[in-house]
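>> Question from a student workshop board

For tomorrow's exercise we were told to take the sequence and the ligand below, predict the bound structure, and bring the output to class. My setup keeps failing. Could a helper post the expected result so I can at least see what it should look like? The ligand is FO1.
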Amino acid sequence: MLAGGVGAAKFLRGLIQSTDPASLTIVVNTADDDRFFGLAVSPDLDTIIYTLAGMASRRRGWGLAGDRFRCLEALGLLYDDAGWFRLGDRDLATHIYRTDRLAAGASLSAVTAELGAAFGVAARVLPMTDHPVRTVLDTDDGHLSFQRYLVERRTRPSVRGIRYRGASAARPAPGVVRAIRDADAVIIAPSNPFLSIGPMLAVPGIRSALSARRRPVAAVSPLVRGRAVTGPLARLLRRFGHPVSSVGIARCYRPFLDLLVIDRRDGRDAFALEREGCRAVLADTIFSTPRRAARTARALLAALELA
Ligand code: FO1
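>> Workshop helper replied:
Here is what the output should look like for this input. Compare the format with yours to find the bug.
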């Protein structure tokens, strides 16, 4: 699976009920990573690990369930700019550990494997790369890091362009290309194609590994009736000249996408998708509960002849 953070995690809660988690490799976006108080924070990696461990906050979608923010409150007395990115007390332990291990010379993939093992995660979680890649948004408020755009500015500034800084010099992390090559199926999570999957496709070697596959590449559409469940996806599709529909999503993943799971309410897109050479599977794509996600995961696995 190729995954961003919160949207991917909601689908993953169902996928792990429908297949053995140990059979999954999840390649995760790291272009949202940032530093807060000198700590290396990898939000999407942590969201995926906490979700697989059954410890993610269901309400927020990110961070640890039941976490408190006492340390952040204390930091607010010391820093002018603290508090807009909410790092929980127990979540901070993850960032301290990651920062410490990276400073000691460990790679991000090694640290991620250590965190996965510590949280009892059976699936293999890989960062897309061990090199620094950062999404930078060119907006009418200037250049913004991803977290400033998403969390601090709540996606309000209008976006003129997106850069994945560092991507062209990056290499896929160990195991990423082999996982894409050898998997029975690749599933692109219902993540934002520009902000979560785009950075991955910009790392040389990842897009070509997807294009070289002979077995299916599937995706789950993050749009229902032209609207994203959360976030700025509809605006970004429009900005970059794509139809604001599942056809627009399929075009982001051309030419390697074979199958797209779309919401039943978008059933009439199926013909247009087939014309684009992409098979449509109709299912429920609002993953408000693990059970709803599991039903759709089963439909996808059946369409892929893996169930
Ligand atoms: N998202 C928010 O909307 N507000 C936050 O304060 C916030 C804090 C946060 C802390 C740790 C972490 O791992 C994730 C966090 N997220 C927060 C989620 C994150 O910004 C995004 O969901 C992803 O980067 C997008 O996939």
